[in-house]
């Protein structure tokens, strides 16, 4: 601190007023900006919508030279630059969408010192020609946006990010600021190490989004459940529905539209014109629902998204947090709603097993899935779990604004049920040398003479019909929770069920198996529960 800083500080505030038209800094912004303006490196962890952009835009405006922003979001660069230009900021970008002339113009502006900010894709910085160009100009600050892309632990790894450590080597006097909304301890550590920023100051904003209500419901008929959720709680609201496949995106959008909800699809298989049109309708119209794969949403700044719904299980808690975080940026009450069922668990386990990735990749993917399942199956406060996962332990015991807080789940002793499932798996394997998936196991337990049961003589098994005390949905819930608890495993392309080491402890009656009671339709704050 000192005279320099004080001057810089007021310059930063003046820039906030004059250029951006905002009254005051939010949260950590001021501290971050002060630190970077006076030449320090910073690692900034801030949730989506927290206001990361100003953290580098203001230092770029206040310090002499051009701020270089590294961003993987090529599709958004034009929009970002247009928005800045509209505010009178001299901004430009360089990426593969430009033709030769456009690039030449930007280069000339940069060299003449006529740019406050220049956006680059990370792959550009692997080119000597780009580095040469940057050397010939004056740089005020390097901003590395979406910095979690450097982490192989994260869900969004981009190899090009690895070469960004050279920025510190080649420009030791230029401050660097790395920003992300993804912040597990592991990612955080990797960002610092891999970008070579050991002396950076760390700024960690709270990850809590108190206005978002988190709810995870057992999946029965997901499209119908979604429709009821929208009709009862979000009629006429804008929102995003995430599905895993393009096909289910299309079908869900059709289904909603047929039922009177303004909904459009968005996925990478649509041509770019349609995608752009649907995106801009979402931003401009009121109350449009976009059904999308995770291709949709990165960098989209729509403050009044009232709900984010997941019809399929996200691959990681990071992904879930980021996707749900697109709701309620304006601070108004919003809902993160997800339907989750047995098939999600089986499908994702299968996907991991049949993936092309190496052993290490699979182990990581499995760990991500485990964390996600733990969040789904928890009987404790979801928000608490979520924030603990992100290393934030200053959380109240119960938030009062998630399904488990609003309607605390009951548990029941599922030991006998679990033993019945395991016995069936064991019988099939020992007596018949067969492995089957969950559908067949449940049919056997229920004593159903389906074609497939008859075909394999499974009505002759001693376990046939031993599970008539529960219905199909309940059995699927039992199997799902057993999978999540590691008492069963999924194998191979058909998703057959097999035993794990922990299965033995249940079969030998060495442990109990507490299970969550399923609530097909948890009561909302309006108390409209039924079962
Ligand atoms: P992030 O990149 O962290 O997701 P943004 O930088 O896009 O978030 O900011 C989110 C929204 O908040 C934007 O609309 C931005 O203009 C607004 N914003 C950021 N900082 C402030 C501030 N100090 N005062 C008012 N609005 C702000
Ligand atoms: Zn809670």
Automatic annotation (TrEMBL):
Highest taxon, organism lineage: Bacteria
EC numbers, comma separated: 5.6.2.4
GO-annotated cellular components: bacterial nucleoid; cytoplasm; replisome
Domain named Helicase ATP-binding: residues: 33-201
Enzyme class: isomerase
Single GO BP term: SOS response
Stretches assigned to the Helicase C-terminal domain: 222-376
One term of GO molecular function: four-way junction helicase activity
Family of this protein: Belongs to the helicase family. RecQ subfamily.
Full protein name: DNA helicase RecQ
Natural source organism: Streptomyces dioscori
Gene: recQ
